[in-house]
Amino acid sequence: MKGIVFTEFLELVEDKFGLEMVDRMISNSDLESKGIYTAVGTYSFSEMLQLLQHLSINTGISIDNLLLVYGEHFFKVIEDSYPGLLATYKDPIEMISSIENHIHVEVRKIYPDAELPTFVVVQKTEDSLIMIYKSSRAMHHFGLGLMNKTFEHFNSKAIITLEKVKEDGTEVRFIINKN
């Protein structure tokens, strides 16, 4: 997993819960990196899972809800760092449906060894989208947070429903209906 995902996560935790919580999460985890991350480094997903588990235990917030908030936070990182990418789209459905064939292609140019989820468009209309998310890492709520902020970015609203295709969350159907 790319380091930017870790550095931004720790920044979010510090902003929302304080530096003491960051220290507590790292101290309670068995991290190969010792909690020292660089944005361009690559780290084990198990480290992110440990950090999320310890944050959840210490805050009483579910991992899914933590990932949702983190996805919403991470959209701002994309917005600030890659405004040209967002400017190529005029509609949230168009942008979300292009994750696999455009956005992930651009991400791989910056981070060639990034392990990204797969998004398969099942059905697309002007006002709706059905996609299947597949990943060995059950971070679909991170994706949901990004999608929520995508609609907000375009001053639009949608109802986004998640249906687990696989109970472990490694395959999820997103059903998006624009309001």
What structural keywords apply?
single chain; 179 residues; alpha+beta; H-NOX domain; 2 domains; 4-stranded antiparallel sheet; 4 strands; globular; NO_sig/Golgi_transp_ligand-bd
Distance between the termini: 34 Å
Q: What count of domains describes the coordinates? A: 2
CATH fold-level assignment of the largest domain: H-NOX domain
Could you list the spans in which at least 5 consecutive residues all have pLDDT below 50?
none
- Radius of gyration equals 16 Å
InterPro entries: H-NOX_domain_sf (IPR038158), Heme_NO-bd (IPR011644), NO_sig/Golgi_transp_ligand-bd (IPR024096)
GO molecular function: heme binding
Protein name: Heme NO-binding domain-containing protein
SSE layout and pairings?
Elements: H1 3-17, H2 19-28, H3 45-59, H4 63-81, H5 83-87, H6 92-97, H7 99-110, E1 118-124, E2 128-134, H8 140-153, E3 158-164, E4 171-178
Concise description?
This protein is of the alpha+beta class and 179 residues long. Helix content is 54%, strand content 16%. The chain has two domains: 59 residues; 113 residues, H-NOX domain (Alpha-Beta Complex).
What do you see in this structure?
This protein has 179 residues and is of the alpha+beta class. It has two domains: 3-61; 66-178, H-NOX domain (Alpha-Beta Complex). The protein contains eight helices and four strands. It has helices at 3-17, 19-28, 45-59, 63-81, 83-87, 92-97, 99-110, 140-153; strands at residues 118-124, 128-134, 158-164, 171-178. A four-stranded antiparallel beta sheet has the order 1-2-4-3, with helices on one face. A hairpin with a 6-residue loop joins β3 and β4. α1 packs across α2 (19-28). It starts with a helix and ends with a strand. This is Heme NO-binding domain-containing protein. Residues 2-160 form the Heme NO-binding domain. InterPro entries: H-NOX_domain_sf, Heme_NO-bd, NO_sig/Golgi_transp_ligand-bd. It comes from Lacinutrix neustonica.
